[in-house]
Design goal:
This protein has a single domain, classed as Methane Monooxygenase Hydroxylase, Chain G, domain 1 (Up-down Bundle). Helix 1 (2-24) packs antiparallel against helix 2 (29-60) and helix 2 (29-60) runs antiparallel to helix 3. It contains 3 helices and no strands. The chain has 77 residues and is mostly helical. The radius of gyration is 16 Å and the shape is elongated.
């Protein structure tokens, strides 16, 4: 799982680097927005995977303290 997360984060990083180049090169607004949406979607998906994994791990260890911390973090969004 961690390897998949790292791979996804590297992909998002590449998308962000591409966005910075697009901004520096003054690309058309529509192209920039499409790339922002793609990067945001990729990061959201990765976040969901990490969240799900963390919750499953806490549940399997009956770790109520960390579960509560995660739930508090989520509720702040």
């Amino acid at each position: 799982m961690d390897g998949d997360i790292i791979l996804r984060l590297k992909k998002v990083n590449g998308q962000i680097q591409g966005l910075m180049r697009m901004m520096e090169d003054k690309e058309r607004c529509d192209k920039v927005i499409v790339q922002f949406q793609a990067a945001k979607a990729a990061l959201d998906t990765t976040y969901s995977m990490v969240l799900q994994s963390s919750l499953h791990e806490c549940m399997s260890r009956h770790d109520d303290e960390n579960m509560d911390k995660i739930l508090k973090l989520i509720s702040k969004e």
